[in-house]
Structure formats: structure tokens, C-alpha cells
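User: Design a sequence. Structure:
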């Protein structure tokens, strides 16, 4: 009997190691920074710009990191949202540090109006596609959309009252984001939906077909 020697099979490619869900971290960073700026806009605080350092560090750098980890998780929605709003906080912080001090109040209000209008446009299509994530995330984007619209109107009109209303809505946005963050943490740790986030409002599209 002849002995046929077989070539050893090539090793199977190793699947990339799973990483922890970065979404609760990104949501928490967004929530806290939004809260600090919003309480100032709402005139609830007698302080100065406590939000600024957190815009650069927590809302900015940490959110961008969460966005990069979402790319690693192949989550294009989370990656785009966290990276973009991380950039928003970094950009806003740098604007205040580098430019706002030399601008008149009217110029600063106009600049902020255009910044917020631009992000309201971005947030509009993100809000529409948040319908495919879950209702908790959708609530964040709906509240944020209202906040940005009211704030850019208030800044263009230099209306303190309108900006205050935007501050109130910003606090609501922060609460929604904190809830979504808390739900992601506790549900991920327990493996059970202890904090409800709601189902997507639309069927997810996969390869051009709808799942049912």
C-alpha cells in the first residue's frame, strides 16, 4: 500500500478579537459636555466656562476615540456620530479659545449661529437613520435636533430668551444621552434588557432587502 503524504492544511485565519461596546462611553462623554454647556445657556450657573475643558477632553478626545472604536466594530453610524460630535466639541472649544476673545458679541453670536446651523444639517440625516438603531438613541438625536435649531435661531437673532430655551432643550438632550449610556452599560453587563431602549422604528436594511 502506498503512503500518500498530505500537505498540512493552512491555519484558519484568526477572527479579530472582540472589543467592548464603545457606545456607552461616547454617549456619556456627549451627555456630560452637553449638560455643562446647556446649563450655562439656560443661565442656571453663576460660573464661567466650566464646559470648555470638558469639550476639549471628554466631549472631544474621548468621543473621537469612541468613534474610532466603532469603526473597529464596523458600526458606521456610531463611528460617524461619535467622531463628528467629538470634532464638534473640539472645534467649538478651539473657537472659544482662539477666536471668540477677539470677536464682538454680535460677531460671536453670528459665528455660533452658522456652526450650529451646519451641525443641525448633519444631525438631520443622522436623526433619520437613528430610526434604525433604537428609540433611546433616536430620542437623543430628536432632542439634539431641536436644541441646535433653537440655538442657531437664538444666536442669529441675538435673543437671550431663545438661547435659554435652547439650553433647556440641551439639558433634555443630555438626560436622553445619559439614559442611553446607562442602558448600554447595564444591559451589556447583565446580558438582559434591564433598561429598555425600544425597537428600531424601521426594519434594518441588509444587502438591499428588509429583515422582518
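Assistant: Done.
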Amino acid at each position: 500500500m502506498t503512503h500518500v503524504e498530505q500537505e498540512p492544511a493552512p491555519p484558519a485565519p484568526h477572527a479579530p478579537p472582540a472589543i467592548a461596546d464603545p457606545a456607552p462611553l461616547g454617549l456619556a462623554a456627549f451627555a456630560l459636555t452637553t449638560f455643562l454647556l446647556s446649563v450655562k445657556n439656560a443661565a442656571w450657573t453663576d460660573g464661567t466656562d466650566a464646559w470648555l475643558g470638558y469639550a476639549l477632553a471628554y466631549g472631544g478626545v474621548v468621543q473621537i476615540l469612541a468613534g474610532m472604536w466603532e469603526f473597529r466594530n464596523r458600526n458606521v453610524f456610531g463611528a460617524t456620530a461619535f467622531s463628528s460630535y467629538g470634532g464638534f466639541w473640539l472645534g467649538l472649544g478651539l473657537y472659544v479659545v482662539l477666536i471668540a476673545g477677539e470677536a464682538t458679541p454680535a460677531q460671536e453670536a453670528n459665528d455660533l449661529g452658522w456652526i450650529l446651523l451646519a451641525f443641525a444639517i448633519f444631525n438631520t440625516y443622522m436623526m433619520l437613520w437613528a430610526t434604525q438603531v433604537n428609540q433611546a438613541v433616536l430620542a437623543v438625536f430628536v432632542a439634539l435636533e431641536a436644541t441646535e435649531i433653537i440655538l442657531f435661531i437664538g444666536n442669529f437673532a441675538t435673543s437671550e430668551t431663545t438661547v435659554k430655551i435652547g439650553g433647556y432643550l440641551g439639558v433634555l438632550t443630555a438626560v436622553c444621552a445619559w439614559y442611553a449610556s446607562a442602558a448600554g452599560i447595564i444591559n451589556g453587563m447583565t446580558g438582559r434588557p434591564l433598561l429598555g431602549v425600544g425597537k428600531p422604528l424601521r426594519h434594518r436594511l441588509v444587502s438591499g432587502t428588509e429583515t422582518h
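DSSP finds six helices and two strands in the chain. Residues 1-9, 206-212 have pLDDT under 50 and may be disordered.
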